[in-house]
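Dear support,

I submitted the protein below through the web form. The confirmation email said the job was done, but the results page showed an empty box. After a refresh the structure appeared. I'm attaching both so you can tell me whether what I see now is the final result or a partial one.
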Amino acid sequence: MEFIKIIFHKLIFKVLLFSFIFCQDFIPVANSALNYNQIFFKWPQINNADYYKLFISEAETSYLSNINSIIVSDLVWDNQYTWEVCGYNNSDYLINCYDSLYFSINSLPENYPNSVDILNADQSQYFSGINLIDYESLNFSVALDINGMPVWFADKSNFNNSIWATQFLSNGNIAGFGSNSKGYEFDINSTITFETSSDYGLHHQFYKTNNNTYFLIDAEIQFHPCPLECPDELPNIIPWQGDRFIELDSSGNLLWEWNSFNYFSLNEYNPIWVDSYVNQWNFGGSPEFDWTHSNSVFFDEDTNIVYISVRNLSRITAIDYNTKEIIWNLGDSDFMDSIYFDNDFGFSHQHSAQITNEGNLLFFDNGRDNQPELSRCVEIDFFDGTQDPEIVWEYILPDSMLTLSRGECDRLLNGNTLITAGRTGNIIELNNNNEIIWHLSAKSNNSPISIYRSDRVPNLYPNSFSFKINNLFGSYNEGYHISHDDEEINFVLYNQGWHDQTFVYQTLDIDGIILNSYQMDISANHNEIINLSDFDPLIENYIFKIFPMNNSSNYQLIAFDNKFILGDTNNDEEINIQDIIVLINLILNDEQYIDSGDLNGDGGINVSDIINLIMIIIGF
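What the results page shows now:
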């Protein structure tokens, strides 16, 4: 009777937990439809397995992994797959296989460009990874490999039919914005995890800081006198469009703002845009005077300085985050009341001002209205204010890549520079000698695709991970166990992502109540062996949960009990002669393997286990 109670209790425990853990145990989730073909596969631990084989239908080979996860990058769009995993020991003996699961990879968007060409690719110098790109003129975003082949795209239907991804985050999500003036954080399945309020007229940039806050540019309209260049027939008071630079917390609450109307003089304007305003008025419109047209905001967390790019004033401004006072303005002195530097560096209508790891200012100079018009990347060193700033590097794009709007220059970790040439549809990578070592050209129906920005990351998974518990018994289907005399969990935590992560690992009871919680920092592509103790002898069933601190929804867990007794082959919570009889019958009848009978831990049931059990009973 006691035996029946034990089995019934364990059965109830497994039933309660099954629906809770199944979707996190097998990735990709069964029957999922994916917008990417670079896929992270993860499955539950198979005890005594030293390595795994992943079998995917229609794949030409199996995939080997020493841990219970792997990234596969060679699957095909618009296809259906089943996958199965088997565990083997070092003698290549099959331990167990999981049932096959199904998933599909969607077809590419109908308006996917018909001409994405790689004009140059030096694999030996290319900084390894994939390219996050917004196809702005097509209203969706993609990730492409070195050969220009798509590995991911965003489902724009989740974003009011437009999404321009601008940043791949360390938590595995992506930041971007849409034509509906909203900023988003979303996962690779295009599931939105954060979006800005419709109160903001967001434009040009939305990005997330390492402080878990968001910066955006918000259009601000105020009514002021028409500039001196305005003809008499225009109203004396007209709407000026400036900008607010906004910081939000993770709940969307306002943390910080800076308004161009409060810090720039109305005497600081570009007459060219007055003419543009007048021309629009003459054609019967009722527009706003496009005063600032800012296009980027960058927060340097090391110095607490905010850098903004104000396109229509051909100006980059450094702002003290704490006081909100202007530290300096850099740019065209014709539109500037106070001159901060003797050299204005001759840039015009620039984009994407940011700070490199060396502390230098890097931006894309569109060269609009310069004579001659040319586009370039510019890097300026301010020498910590000890001397006048100087250009320490620049690259002038060929005439074929002149772009009077859009554009970005990114310094990669190996010193190469990734350049997005805006409306020309070109992205190039330069080495330290300014040689083009990779060149992508994107066109749709023979017209260049306009691109805001691009980002190079190793793959789609900055925070992928898995773990293996070394002192675990049992199986996924029958239930996992920790020995009753074990006072700790000994496990290996593998950070398989390309970003350093802080992981949280916890024990919970059956009701999900956290019993213990700990943290561990693990560098990218490294692992740590961890011991977790503090078990309560009054609690029989546990849940073990792990997740990256920056993304608690990306969790993995395993359920186990701590009442397992090695050698208790009949589950009566005692070790005696009856267990030897069960073990002998298992061997003679070649019956199914059980963990409690594998006393020597070799993954099988044999005479050696009987000898070990006898030794335990007689006290040796």
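Response: this is the final, complete result; the empty box was a page-load delay. The radius of gyration is 30 Å.
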